[in-house]
Amino acid sequence: MERKRVAVVEDSPEIRLLVSVLLSRVYEVGEYTDGLEALEGFAKSKPDLVLLDISLPRIDGTELLARMRADPGLAPIPVIAFTAYASENERQRFFELGFDDHIGKPLTDFQLLMGTVERLLHQAG
C-alpha cells in the first residue's frame, strides 16, 4: 500500500527536521521552507495533508491556505495550522479561515500531532 504524503511547510530548520523525523516513520514527507516553494512543490507532487506554519517568508500560511482553497485540485486537502499563535481567539480565527485543525508550537505532545494527522487523513479518505 502506498504511503500517504504529508507536506511540512515550516521555515525553522530545527522544527521542520523534528516534525519530518516523527512523521516519516509512517508517512512520506515533503518539506518546504515557505508558501511559494510549497505551491511549486504541490504542482509536482500533491500532498494528502499539509502541516502549515503561519509565519513564513514570501507568502504566509494564511495566504497559502487561501490559494489552496481557491484551487480545485488543492482545495480538498486537509490543512493543519501549526503555529505559536495558540490562544482560543487565534484558534477560532484559523478555523474561520478554513484550516481543518490547529496544533500549537512548541510541539510538546507528539501523540497529538500523530493522532491529528491520522484522523484528518482518515476523514479525507
Describe the overall structure.
With 125 residues, the chain is an alpha/beta fold. The chain has one domain: Response regulator (Rossmann fold), CATH 3.40.50. The chain is built from five helices and five strands, in the order βαβαβαβαβα. The chain has a five-stranded parallel beta sheet with strand order 2-1-3-4-5, sandwiched between helices. Strand 3 (49-52), helix 3 and strand 4 form a beta-alpha-beta unit. Helix 2 (35-44) runs parallel beside helix 3 (61-70). The radius of gyration is 13 Å and the shape is globular. The two termini are 14 Å apart.
The CA-CA distance between the termini, in Å, is: 14 Å
Could you estimate the helical fraction of the residues in percent?
40-55%
Beta-strand fraction estimate:
15-25%
List how many beta strands DSSP finds: 5
Low-pLDDT segments: none
CATH structural class: Alpha Beta
Number of helices: 5
Structural class by sheet pairing and helices: alpha/beta
- Proper CATH architecture: 3-Layer(aba) Sandwich
Biggest sheet descriptor: 5 strands, parallel
- Following the backbone from N to C, one meets helices and strands in this order, namely EHEHEHEHEH
| Order of neighbouring strands in the sheet with most strands | 2-1-3-4-5
Q: Tags for this entry?
A:
125 residues; alpha/beta; 46% helix; 5 strands; 5-stranded parallel β-sheet; Rossmann fold
